[in-house]
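COURSE: Structural Biology Practicum
ASSIGNMENT: Worksheet 4, Part C
STUDENT ID: 0417
INSTRUCTIONS: Below are two proteins. For each, the amino acid sequence is given first, followed by its structure token string. Answer the questions at the end about the second protein only.

PROTEIN I
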Amino acid sequence: MLDKNGIAKRIAKEVKDGYYVNLGIGIPTLVANFVRDDIEVEFQSENGVLGMGPFPFDGEEDADIINAGKQTITTLPGASFFDSAFSFAMIRGKHVDLTILGAMEVAENGDIANWKIPGKMVKGMGGAMDLVASAENIIVAMMHTNKRGESKLLKKCSLPLTGVGCVKKIVTNLAVLSVTPDGFELLERAPGVSVEEIEKATEGNLIIKGEIPEMQLD
């Protein structure tokens, strides 16, 4: 199965030349490290950065240049900085081609829960609600199961929702799946992972059509 970098590497293959891409907090921030060198992509962060690059090497961090998750980042030539109003005008105006988010749960109809766990203090939903409401192409990066081994790909989300019916594709440590009207369609399996293992780890309806290929990460 994949680690977090493996998930990000697979998602990077979904990024196309000329895309404007918003990277959410967590695994999605790693995607910028794996995008092909022969394409041009503009990464946007909701705190007001357009033109993010890979994470800096140790000793080269600038504490004033951060992403929405407060991680230090690099910027590419031509990058720009702006206020939150301008940033969310980009998002709400549908100027972002692809949104990559983490999640705690995804339902088989594409609902996503990624902001609140009951009983735990949180500052609020933040920009996640705007992202899922405005984006037309949402990919979720997540672990297939939680720390207790329970599926995070469910028939119905148990946590408070961030968005309804909005997720298009999911990449986990076990598989690549698309959200269809009938449930999760299994597209690829992680190296060394069997279809049976994915079935066991998926609570929601899993659609399997023919031979399922192994992910190609390179």
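PROTEIN II
(use this one for the questions)
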Amino acid sequence: MTNLVEIIRLLNTDGIGPVSFYKLLKQHGSVSAALDAVAQRKQLFSQAAAEDEIAKADNLGVKIISYADDIYPENLRQLNDAPPLLYVLGNPALLNYPAAISIVGARNATIGGRKMASHIAYDLTEQDVLVISGMALGIDGAAHKGALYAKHQKGATVAVLGTGVDEIYPPEHRDLYEQIRHQGVIVSEFSLSTKAQISNFPRRNRIIAALSAGTLVVEAGLHSGSLITAKSALEQGKEIFAVPGSPLEARSAGPNQLIKDGAILTENAEDILNTLSITQNRQIKNYQLELSGLDKPQNNVNILAQKEIAPQADHFSAPPSTPSTGTKTPLLSLISYEGVDTDELLRSSGLEQADFFMQILDLEFAGKIIRLAGNKIGRVK
């Protein structure tokens, strides 16, 4: 069994990144031998500091997964610079979900762009496709919210951070961060307490691309980080999807160029679902059987998946139907400034569940409502 302390020490020694880590491992045969070799020419990251990192992770409820663990995401193993360590907050078994789509785009996104990202994320989650993004402002946040609203507000989503998993960045997404850690999973390759640095985000983007079967770009400039994610996905042989926009809008330049270069023009979730293969659909069904405890025989990964996901198994199950009262009242008029319970609001609205959550998202992006504690929604004064 590979020693986690030794991996942390080697990986955090100055001048050693994922590529050089694996080179040393290949040259010397083990992490322990690599540490001995490196110690002859440079100061190692201390054992005490590595042990402190593990203790801190334990205290925060963070799982540290190494490249040697069975639950390490298989899609990441294909990268020559795969992160030797992943810090995970939430449900780690979701990182091996067989059909996932990453949704990325501009931080300064338009209301229309954010609505598009949320609606597509919502519909994908309803169809058992996991949504992955980077928890940034704009399109990323909108995609996460759409996924979380799906499956009767129990949808899962994956946030890949460019900071330590214990650092909430941007700070405006504190509530979103808490929702994701409880309904999905937050993951990073960076050590705990790592602050936001420009150089970290391109590294994060390759993980976003690797964990998914394809990447959707919604609004992005020609030189944006979203196109870096798309480029990483393309290099990994993944599908690229793009939402077209007006040639007069700078934020449409990136997606429009991707479409010119062969990306799949995407107007709704159906365009993505139609591209997912029959094989992936079969993998989803098999994975759901595993989560339900119906698969035999079981391997270690399946057992862990059951253990981690069982309490949240309805993330990817059919949501309960909501009877319609036949009376549809304008939704905003039903929302008080003090807040109203979301389930009660759904019943009072007379809307079908999907229509209800789409309208809620639209009102939220228009700045007319805000989500409150206790599963409540309040009107903005």
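ANSWER KEY EXCERPT:
Q1: The chain has three domains: 4-60, 93-278, 331-379.
Q2: The first helix runs from residue 4 to 11.
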